Amino acid sequence: MIAFDLFTTSLREVNQTLHAAGSGDFTIDNPQGAHALGCGIDAPLEVKINGPVGYYCAGMNQHANVSVIGNAGTGVAENMMSGTVRVSGNASQSAGATGHGGMLIIEGSASARCGISMKGIDIVVGGNVGHMSAFMAQTGNLIVLGDAGADLGDSIYEARIFVRGTVGGLGADCAEKEMRPRHLELLADRLTAARIEADPADFTRYGSARALYNFHADDIDHEEPGA
Amino acid sequence: MCGIVGLYLKTDRHEQQLGHLAALMLHEMRARGPDSAGFSIYDANAVRSDVTRITVLAESVEVDWEHVRSGLAAALATTVDVRPIHDHAVLETDGDGRAARQWLIDHQPQLDVLAYGKAIELFKAVGDPDGVADRFDLAKRAGTHVVAHTRMATESAITTNGSHPFSTGADTCLVHNGSLSNHNQLRERLEACGETFQTENDSEVAAGYLAWRLREGDSLEQALHGALDDLDGFYTLAIGVQDGFAVLRDAIACKPAVIAETDDWVAMSSEFRAIAQLPEVNDADVWEPEPATVYTWTRGAA
Known about the structure:
The complex is a heterodimer of chains A (227) and B (302).
Chain A: E1 2-5, H1 11-20, E2 24-29, E3 45-50, E4 65-69, E5 84-87, E6 103-106, E7 119-125, E8 139-144, E9 160-163, E10 174-177, H2 181-194, E11 204-208
Parallel strand pairs in A: 1-2, 2-3, 3-4, 4-5, 5-6, 6-7, 7-8, 8-9
Antiparallel strand pairs in A: 9-11, 10-11
Chain B: E1 3-9, H1 18-28, E2 36-42, E3 52-57, H2 65-76, E4 80-85, E5 88-93, H3 97-107, E6 112-117, E7 120-126, H4 129-135, E8 145-151, E9 166-169, E10 172-180, H5 183-192, H6 202-215, H7 220-230, E11 233-241, E12 244-249, E13 258-261, E14 265-269, E15 285-287, E16 295-298
């Protein structure tokens, strides 16, 4: 276990240590809302951050498990490739933006544009998400236990959205869809992986109506046409 | 870019440290706005019906303050005191503040009238925000609320009078992160309603809009609901009035904002790190203001 205190160690030194490490457990105290903390980790590290973080925490993460005990600023786990990022509090806008893989768990709420342009990441939000979440989302799963704000899934491609609460409004070309057995299985699997308790049967699924973009069934392999 | 901070004290507990806390907040926003900075500091406890203070700026000109003082005193037919502070001065009078502002704009064109009112003083300058705070002794000032800004100019030159906060009406000021697209049209509309502007800046128009609505009798909430209809563009605004504070974001809300509130204070900033060192911050409620939603606080309001 290696412990850092951002009162006494510079942000750059902390990030360079995390980049150089191939494995190990790390704790970081007193982040004070610092930006880009734990960005660009490329190894199976266990990183625990005690306190609120600023922009782009754990951005581009590969392989690491990063947990934030506190709130996260704009773009937490932005462009994550793999691994897990867990936030115990709330997250600011654009959480999980453009993420390709791995799982982002926000135990509180996320604000606007959660999962914007997501490309394969799983995002599980214990509370609500703000307006324009999953905007232009391409693939992956956005799972919301609370409510979603206005214009959910605007211009969505093939990502799946599951919302347990109310939706403030669907964006262009986003539609409510039938929950099939395989969606219930998928949701149960992701909730278990996120260590979040909820009954998949309580959720509603949303996805692309496929009327806005030039959709060809041949282009995808994970959904039958009109699913 | 640009950085915004606001700190509004709900109780008298931190009044002596207000400027110190505001300077800490401003320091954290330097990276968002290294060009220039400014702050409005209010002391709602010092409000007296017969004292109006007018903060003026004399950028890059030598000013005979005694000449300005005596001219204004003659125009208002009352007494005026003057207190120069670097290239600013605070004029104090028992005369009418709005009339004083207009006389200074009409007769002292070398000056910019930054603010007038019974609680507000306003300072701004080009350069590193910490240096601006130092020059005008922000950290030593007491008071009830502060609204401040660090600027990264995008649409107009780096000048002092393009710096925030902007204020055109009594004790009303704002700082703005964003850009307005209908400010020219709105400026003409407001000028027809009697507002006077001193810059080409879009944010000054937003300040003038609120000043006009408040002068016409709107409550702060009503004026801000009007702003949601009438301001077109991107904005996160922090607004100060004589005994109140407000935050407003446009419907898209792409300009960042975070609010923290305890029993003693409410703080708003572009980023949490500006709030991170305030007293008892770990016990604060922290949230992001919703788009197109009016947030106001008024001291001791019943």
